[in-house]
Write the structure tokens for this entry.
Amino acid sequence: MSGFNLIQTKEAYGETLLELGTSNPDIFVVEADLMKASGSKQFMLKFPDRHINVGVAEQNLVSIAAGLAVMGRIPFACTMSNFLSQRACDQVFLGAAYNALNVKLVGCYSGLSQGKNGGTHISLMDFAIMRILPKMKVIAPSDIRELKEVLVTVSKDTGPTYIHLPRSLPENIFDSSYIFKINNAYVRGDGADLTIICNGLTTFIAFRAQEALEKENINARVLHIPTIKPADRKLIIRCAIETGAILTVENHSTCGGLGGLISEIVTEEFPVPVFRIGINNQFGLTADLEFQLQYFGISIENIQAKARELINFKNKIGQRRKELKYYG
């Protein structure tokens, strides 16, 4: 993207797998013939007996990973997120989630980061599919540093996990105090006008939008939610109470993903207006990432526009409530 320094995630993924494999002989890697794309080729070269290439057979990828987990191994099974969440969905359901096996599923090139591979390859539903599966954890790191921390953390955790991994991410967007922990979200700022909720590829865009809104005297806070499941419900509700309005931004369909999750939680706990930015009832395009982000409104400018609209809506609701109370 123009103005952003994005780094390909495959280098960090491959390097971290290599480190994990060196320290833990139970780490295995399963691939569907995408070693160059995912970054696991260096693991294959150093540990050929712990690297399994199933070929272009994503259903087998998940089933073999499940078998390794039954044997007490820790398999990282990676392929493009559209194939992992869609083509191999039944195997993920039965082979990983239903049996609560210790399988680490990595959906690379997630969402719009598929770019010119086009609409057939752009996964718009991986959050929705994976988060409805009982026992499945769902994680979306937002920079290279967090990605490495996620990989190390899930290698020590037990149970099935899905990692939503874009093709590229910024190197480091968080302050030094932030350390990734499953189920913990991260708040940037204490603005009371609205909360912008994001993860994965959209967090650094939300950070820039927050800075742009400050220049308009709109005080937004950003809530980064790397763990979609289990989500940090307490922090989500706290932000809803303290700001009274939420804007979600995601590299995913607006149906069933991050925006859907937040809507479900606040509806149950503390209802506030929720506006959602993402891919709205459309397929992805055959175009580069920057064009698609702009096309679908996952941009600083659109976040600013929707934030203004949301604040006006929140104020109208507040005024209406005062009127109803007055006329009681």
Notes: The chain has two domains: 6-170, 186-319.
